[in-house]
Please model this.
Amino acid sequence: MRLTRGTDYALRGMVSLAQDAPGHIALVSALALREGVPESYLAKIFQDLARSGIVHSHRGARGGFSLARPADTITLRQIIEAVEGPIALNTCLEGCNAESCNRQDTCPVYPVLRAAQDQLIATLDGTTLAELARREP
Model:
C-alpha cells in the first residue's frame, strides 16, 4: 500500500497551514512555495479538503484557505480519506459492496488483514494535525 503524491501534498500543505496562527487565511501559492509542491495541484487538493469540511475556501482579494476547525480535531485519517477515499487494505475490507469478498468467515487471511487495517486506522485516528504541526521543525 502506498499513499499517492496528492495525499503527500495534502499532508504537507495541511501541516503548513496548521502552523499558521489560528484563523489565518493562507494563499495556496504561499503554501505551495513553503512546501515545494506544484501550486495548481495543491489548489485542486485543497478543493477536495474544502468539500470534506476540513478547510474553508475564502474567495476574493483576501481569499485562500483556513482550517475549518481546530487542528487538534483534524486527524490524519480525515485528511487521507478526503483525498484517497476510505482506507481499505483489500476489497474484503471495503464494507458492503458487490466487489467485496464473501469468504470472510472461512478465509485465513481476512482476520490478519482486518487486524492490520484496524491498527492502521487507530494510528491515523489517534494522530492530529496539531501534533504533526508541532513536530515540524
